[in-house]
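User: I'm curious whether this sequence folds into something compact or stays loose and floppy. Could you predict its structure so I can see for myself?
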Amino acid sequence: MPEIVKSSAAPRPVIVCADDFGIAGGVSEAIAELIARGRLSATSCMTPLPDWRRHAPQLRTVLRQTPADVGLHLTFTDHKPLTAARGLARDGRLPALGQLLARALARALPSDAIRDEIRAQLDAFEDVWGEPPDYVDGHQHAHVFPGIREALVDEMLRRYPARRIWVRDCVEAPLRSLRRGIALPKALLISTLGLGLRGLLHRHALPANDGFAGLHDFSGRIPFRTLMRAFLANAGPRPLVHVHPGRVDAELRACDPLTTPRETELAYLASADYVEDLATAGLHPARFSDFAAITP
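Assistant: Here's the prediction. I'll summarize afterward.
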């Protein structure tokens, strides 16, 4: 992993985005607390899960004092859909990631079910939040999959003709991925899949970040601070780092296998080490609008 040399230049903006707001109370509350402390600048919300409705008001209260981008975390794996999702869900549950990816690569996803679920999840966001999301991305990056990315872009163009809502671009320059050396096969796969979405975004002039980091295996073999220092190094021109902080509770254990690593990430993001590492990398947590003056 690269050695980080402290930058003497003025700090550049980086979106530090916590995924999975709404998956469980312990996760949502931890994310809201980190936003309130200025440690995060965005969070992605899972509207099919009941905790979204419970904790959205807390998030709204926090944002009155500490603004951040709030997006839709499109959910197509493991959880209950908001629609019948015919041909996609089985026994009321969305498929596992591997099953979804295999069908996507085979161009065998049911287009009507995908379209209807995207619309329902956006409806559920707007119904609670009272306005459109600042951006859209995907749980387990499913928004970049063939069959989902096309439906997402079509819905964005139909629903938001002003095109002010940005989309998470999961493409990372191969050299930056190689320099980090973290979860390299995973990073290269997601980046390759992301090229299709990037092409659609460029074609339709939809805004997006440029630079993507945060992928790892959640094994704990490497201290999270070491990982984060690598994610912050060699950042792209409009970079985004995604993280997964949270507290483990019974609700989380019942619905998601990612538990203890969330508390490790929370502890680091709440620490002075994180502040020091941001300063060393010459970055500061920022909203997408802070990229306005930066040419990708």
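Summary: The longest helix spans residues 184-203. The mean pLDDT is 94.
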